[in-house]
Amino acid sequence: MEDFDWEAFENPVSSQSTEESSEETVDVTEHTIVSGTVISINRREVVVNIGYHSDGIIPSSEFRYNPELKVGDVVDVYVESKSERLGQLILSHKKARAAKAWDRINEALDNNESVKGFVKCRTKGGTIVDVFGIEAFMPGSQTDIVRVADLDTFVGQTINVKVIKINKEFRNIVVSRKAVVEENLLRKTADKTLLKEIWQKHTEVQEQILRQRTAPFAIMPEATTIINEKLYVRVDTTDNTEGLRQLIVESLDIDYDDCHFEDGYIFAPIAKWQKVDESVKARISTTANKEYVTFTYYPVVDGTVVDKRAQFTGVKQLLDKLNVEYDLDKNNRLQISIEELNRLKENEEFNSLQLALPDRASAIIPTYPSIVVYLEKLYPGLKLNNIETFKSSRRKTYTGVTIDKQVSVEGGYFTQEFLDEIKPVFELQMCKVEFTFIIHEDALNNYDWQANKLGLPKLNGNTITFSKKVKRPKLQDDLEDSSEDSIDSIDSADIEDGDENTPDFTYINSSEFFSTKHTTDFNFDFYLWSDLMKRLFGKDNYEYTETYYYKYRENREWASAEELDKFNDDLHVSFKPSIEHSVSSKGNSIGIDFNWKEKSLPELLTELSRDYPFVDFGLFKNGHKCNFDVQYKKVDMTEIMNQLHDFSEDLHLELRKKGTELGFSREFERLEDLLTFKTQLIHKLQTFDQSRYLCTISEVPSDKVKLVYFNDIASRDKDCLDAARELKGADFTVGELKIGKLIRTANYPELVLDISGDFYEVTKQLFEETDVTEITPDLSGDLEKLARLKESLNRIVEGRDVENPSLGTFIFDASKAAGIKDYEENIKLELQEIEKHLLNKRIASNEPQKVAIAKAILAPDLSLIQGPPGSGKSTAIAELIWQHVRENQNTRILLTSETNLAVDNAIDRVVNPYHNLVKPIRIGDESRLETEGLQFSYSAMYRWAKGEDITTKKKSFDIDDDDDDDEMVTTVEDTVYEAPEKLILLNWMENIGRRMDKDCMPEKAQELWADLLENPTDNLKVLFFDNYIANCNVVGATCSSIGQKNIIFTENIATQSKKNKFVPTAFYKTYRSVFSQRDNEYNPKIRFDVVIQDESSKATPAELSLPLIYGKKNIIIGDHRQLPPMISRESFTNSFDYLIKREKDNTELQRIKELKSFVIKNFNVLEVSHFERLYNQIDEKLKGVFNYQFRMHPAINEVIKQFYKDEGGLECGLVHPKDLGINDPDYIHNGASRFHGISAGPIDPDVHVLWIDSSSPEMLDGTSRVNYGEVEIIRKLLRELNNSDSFHEYNNKWSNIEDKQIGLISFYGKQLRLLREMTREFNPNELPIRVSTVDRFQGMERNIIIVSMVRSHCIQTEKGQKPNYKKYPEVGYPKQEDLGFAQSPNRLNVALSRAKRLLIIVGDSQLFRTKDIYDNVYKTVYNHENGKILTAEEYGL
Fold first, then answer.
1. Peptide bond before 269: cis, by omega within 30 degrees of 0?
2. Which of 29, 22, 81 has its CA nearest to residue 57?
């Protein structure tokens, strides 16, 4: 029987039919794997032809791992069964994949291949991924190169993964998406394209974001105030979707009864919904997106599946049943009062839930300036204390916390007149009095304290306190003195011995008087107490203090905007930093994290009230709720999710309420599809365990459809706040009027603008007399710069319109820059040529400088020069320009930098008394040019040729020296008028006069020629100007100004739409005037033979690229040991988030996410100066290093050289290879002298580096830091300098203000503010001082520099805090080890290298010497003959 063919018996066929069918079909064997072709695809099924007489049908869910499946694809299938009688063929793709899966998985592991996988669901610690039909585990840590906060975002996605582990015994597979991402990024990093792509994307997005930032801010006119030239406005954050709702209602013609906007949906009659025009739908959907509303016209089926057995569900149901006051926050944390929770713990039903309550709870406590702040404002100097006592209260109708609020005043009590005056704000009622007597030690034994027959209060040390509650607070009715003071007191001196009104001592000879708790007349009580003390201890054997206590009710309306602003600052500064305490950014609340089982909330708040009397701590009504992050027992809805996903992959699933509720929804284009799906969904939900799961589909009336409406207010508010923060420091306008800068956003929606500029009076009048409803940020300058940066990057990436076609290659990988042909031979010849024709003869003895210049001249594409501070970069640039022009006078050179100062310093060095072969012009706003640059100004030369005044108005400008985000420090310099010392045209004319051949030219002709050159006619001026411009070969300009077009926003009145209008930049207008005739074009192309870019270490790749696109050859000069570019991690991540939200293409979306992951994990790579990156990549033959500096005294050089050990060190060129007169007292005429000759305090003529070792604690001030001890040290130093005759003798010899000024540098804005306030005590004419950040000092130098380091090994929490050696035995203060800014040595290098003659460091060596490089600095100062170290104590502080 086993050999009997049952299949043949049950399915008999004739031999003839078999033969016929075999000619048309292939033989198919069940339980085998064959290949088939996809011939049809729909949402539910995939039809596959395997050559059999009938086709097979496979559920589409088996192909969801491959969303790119299409007709014609060949797939493997498993033949489950065939039935020729019924004509059916049952196939499975899933089983075919599984059968071959293990071989393919092993092959993927062996070959390190990437394979596709479908993320099915979440699981503990990661996700389950379908790979070749087999379930693999992907740990959360292997999902991305950065931590993924929400793994659910990957569920339902097809991703690329690598197999990283196989356990063959248990058939377990571990896969990694992280490995794929890392491999992709590594590949891009290797070919240097990654940075290019990141910066290109970032620049593009920043421009788009900036354009959005130009939208006006709607403000509330009634909330606008002006205080101390600051404008306080409140942004209107009201919901503006009413108009959108009206449009939706009108488009569907529905009743408001069907509008459930607040609940997130509306009902629309089917007949009306079907008639809505597609153009109307598109317009309303677009409007909705702008208002942060999700709304489409697609009807929805939605509902929930709730696990009734889940612990979370049980808790919620019980709390509702017991009518307990509770809430759940957005993270489903339980919000309930502790008192209510303790009451619940007595409930048996609650205990049966076996809820694991956490030990810690958190609470938000409202804060406000306390009554002490109000009273001190009225009467400064009073000894006040705010006393808030919080107590638990449990009554039948109320369970919560009550507050007893009292304020105490020491030394007297408030007069009735004063109490009546403040009654509208605070109604005070005296409730208690205390009289404290401090008895002298030698009189204590006059009374038998052990027996204490009089029942005196308990002796505490040598102090006793009499205390009584005041029953009837009739204040001051009996006082005859009508003093205007607010405080009266009782004077015991008025009580004389033997006074007839003095009661007999026997009246108080028992303890009954002292045991009485209340008083109706505290004056009489004090009379008795004082008399008793005199009799017991003697009149002069004690002192006393009186304290009066007043009850009051809370008032949170009295403080002005300015007072709240100050309170915000005080709260941030004074509140002790703790992992258990946090302060909100607005200062109107604090967050507390505490162990509620060990200490109650009332106890904690009472302690805080004692510690911070200036704060009024409040409570919310109806019992103050705390947050409890309860860890409920894990609920597994995975199986339900999988079944619903298999049922319909278009069903949107979302876990809610701690995973106990599964929400589902699906939108449809056609109503017929919705109705069919809903019927199928109902049947599917009925298959779930009804005893455990409550399945609900939202009810919709039969004649209507449900449309989803979701107003994302949280995202809107967050974006508005982010926009305001991004605009900090930006100018704002009302119409065409520029009103001021945005300086504070911390209290958003309140914004603060500084309106103290030229238009203050107009702005004040505008806001006082009219209702201004919106203010607009003016970002035109930033937009223009970003547009040009974006364009330059795009041109480089695309290889479009760049002078050097290879720029796109070597600007991101300098190793690909073309090399110098026949290097050894050509470098030798070039050095000989340079030495023959030197512009500056000092270079002859500076071999590193000479070689660097020669390399730069010979380089065909790119050359880099590393130049430390004071190493003669400006001199080298002038020499580079000269050598290029000398070889070819028609060479066109662009000299550029991020700062005007660097451009002007370098261009000034080409001026000489012999020739004008080099003819530079300076393009830029004259009001911002330095004196050195003004002489080359095209505009000034043009005015001179026209016979006009060449004096230029220097703009008033702000010095923003604040280094923290909280507040800007601004000092405004007066407007001044300045003229160039001598135009370059006049220098040219003088050089011509010097070249007169006096031997051959008649004397009369010489006189006429000299007079003509000294007093040129108008025609001669024009002639000189035209010839100079016609032969101009050098252009100087800042990087950000270079470009051809500006983008100006123009508004179309008819359409109310904004569009771009392109106009020439100021740079291009001048460039066109100079070169259009020479290039025979009205709009000539911007092009240069050589671009020299200075101060490049601070430039980002985008900023670096802007000028380089115009150069055939580029010479980049910088110092990567100085400040790198200031870039923000948040700015980059925001850029990619912006793209992720808007990208629809999955492939591009995945690429953007990978770039974002790289930025987050490797942001340190982006922070590296691009100059440093290029410098490390480029061939040694294309880069030079300057190893001699000519700014600093050798002693200062020894300090700085610690930062340049990796670059070959740094020597002082003033003494090496020979001494040029470093100690020459004639420092005015000998430029190499660094003599100062000052004797003042610790400074003597031989000291050139002084370190005053402060040990004073630092203090956190907002987000900035201060060090009061260092301020006092610097104050004393400045006083000693100001009192020193030798200092004034030295300083008065200088004529230039920069030479006279003492530079005062720090790294923190609040410290700079303290220093600036301190320096106001000195006459600026006698002791000129410039106080500034290190960022502003880069590129500058001063003879004397004082650096305040601020950071310390210990920290205090408030000004004037005394050391507590009992609590902190070592130093008296809490320790701190963070170096802050100094973690990277670059900033300190810049600060210390600004000094020429005398460097003074004020800082804590104990902290800074923990880092080796700073320890070397300290030791260098200590060991150098011109160095000196002394402690603050040795200095007398």
1. no
2. 81
DSSP assignment of 506-521: GGG-STHHHH--EES-
Q: Which two tokens stand for residue 305?
A: 């599946």
**Element housing 781 (H / E):** helix 780-798
Question: What does the alpha-carbon distance between residue 237 and residue 749 come to, in Å, rounded to a whole number?
Answer: 7
Average model confidence (pLDDT) across the chain: 81
For 751-768, the pLDDT digits (tens) are 999 898 778 889 999 998
By C-alpha distance, which of 1338, 1346, 1411, 1401 is closest to 1377? 1411
Provide φ and ψ at 1075, rounded to 5°. Answer: -110, -5
How far, in Å, CA of 622 to CA of 610, rounded? 25
* Distance separating alpha carbons of residues 1343 and 909, to the nearest angstrom: 21
Between CA 755 and CA 760 the distance in angstroms is 6
**Amino acid code (one letter) for 1430:** L
Q: Which residue has the tokens 């969801």?
A: 64
Nearest to 88, CA basis, from 13, 41, 30 = 30
Q: Where are the alpha helices (DSSP H) in 687-779?
A: 713-726, 760-769
Q: Which letter does DSSP use for residue 397 in this model?
A: S
Q: How far apart, in whole angstroms, are the C-alpha atoms of residue 305 and residue 661?
A: 6
CA atoms within 13 A on the CB side of 323: 2
Amino acid at 83: S
Least reliable range by pLDDT among 9-13, 129-133, 220-224, 243-247:
9-13
The Cα 838–Cα 219 span in angstroms is 64
Q: Give the chain's end-to-end CA distance (angstroms, integer).
A: 112
Q: What is the pLDDT of residue 515?
A: 52
Per cent of the chain over pLDDT 70 is: 84
Q: What is the mean pLDDT of residues 353-368?
A: 83
Three-point CA angle 748, 751, 753, nearest 5°? 160
Q: Cα(244)–Cα(257) distance, rounded to whole angstroms?
A: 17
Q: pLDDT of 934-945, one tens digit each?
A: 888 898 888 888
Question: Under 8 Å CB-to-CB from 546, ≥6 apart: which residues?
Answer: 410, 411, 412, 413, 433, 434, 435, 436, 489, 490, 526
How far apart, in Å, are the Cα atoms of 411 and each of 381, 470, 482, 527, 1174?
Answer: 11, 17, 18, 16, 72
- Could you tell me which residues are beta bridge partners of residue 1243? 1240
For residue 213, with 0-12 CB atoms within 10 Å meaning exposed, 13-18 middle and 19 or more buried, which class applies? middle
Strand bridging mode 970-972 / 958-960: antiparallel
Residue whose C-alpha is closest to residue 549's, from 433, 699, 668: 433
pLDDT of residue 212: 64
Give the integer Cα–Cα distance in Å for 334 and 1416: 56
Predicted TM-score (pTM) above 0.85: no
pLDDT in tens, 1134-1178: 767 767 766 666 666 776 777 777 676 666 666 677 888 889 889
User: Which backbone phi and psi does 243 adopt, to 5 degrees?
Assistant: -65, -40
3-state DSSP helix/strand/coil percent for the chain, to nearest 5?
Answer: 40, 25, 35
Q: What pLDDT is attached to residue 25? A: 56
Cis preceding-peptide flag for 1084 (omega within 30 of 0): no
Question: Is the pLDDT at 770 greater than 80, yes or no?
Answer: yes
Residue type, 1433: E
8 A C-beta contact, residue 1141 and residue 1409: no
d(CA 647, CA 1177): 56
CA separation for the pair 469, 519 (Å, rounded): 6
Strand ranges in 1196-1247 using DSSP code E only, listed in sequence order = 1211-1212
Assign 99 to helix, strand or coil: helix
Alpha-carbon distance values, 1047 to 352, 736, 785, 1044, 1100 (Å): 70, 18, 9, 10, 22
Q: Which residue is it, tokens 């162990």?
A: 595
Q: Tell me the per-residue pLDDT of 726-747, one tens digit each, with 9 for 90 and over.
A: 788 888 999 888 898 888 887 7
What one-character DSSP code corresponds to residue 975? Answer: P
